[in-house]
Model the fold of this input.
Amino acid sequence: MRFGLQLSPPLSLALHARSQIPADTIPQTSTLRAPTSTFSSSTTTTTTAAAAAAAMVSALILLAEGTEESEYTITYDVLVRGGVSVRSALVPPCDSAYVTCSRGVRIVPDISLPCPAEAVREYDALIIPGGAKGAETISSSSDVHALIKHMHDAGKVVGAICAGSLAIQAAHLAPGAKITSHPSVKSQLESDYDYREERVVVSDRLITSRGPGTTFEFALALVTTLVGASKAQEIAPPMLLPSV
Done:
């Protein structure tokens, strides 16, 4: 995934997430043996790398024209800091190689919906950011509805923030569950869910939050659920966030 700033051509930049670095390019401990070792097994190294890649928790984050970029980028960043491999998926329509978010930031998604069923199985979590226009596109997508149901039925985590919670409702997922969202869409959700106004609401494998200002807390809740509380506590202080 690349981020392009729209300010002016000289200021354009692209960043590749660390989670996309192939596991077999990362030095493995099996190659850093003590001097007494007489050989380094390439087979062992390859096996160790493959096992590490297979064990890594992964998440798929959705993206559409008009997605709220802070909710997308902060969640992506914090998940990577927490050791989660993250990929982005475009929810059509989009008539260019990049998505233009609600404040003009351009992001190039990794893949596009619909995804083959076998490709979806590798992910442990599905994340849905907000942004009025982006949430409308995501919530109205039948491919997204099927993906949400598949992930939930498979015991995976589903997270939504801001107006992204409308996609949970559109997929008819977990009616009656505790949920939250941006206040602007509260009235659309409270008839079907146990609506709460906490900054982050965790209801079994459904995690929801309110908006841009609660994104760090939302992302840390995802890390806690996917990786563990100790990892969330480890990564919060370097970001100058309160301890969790």
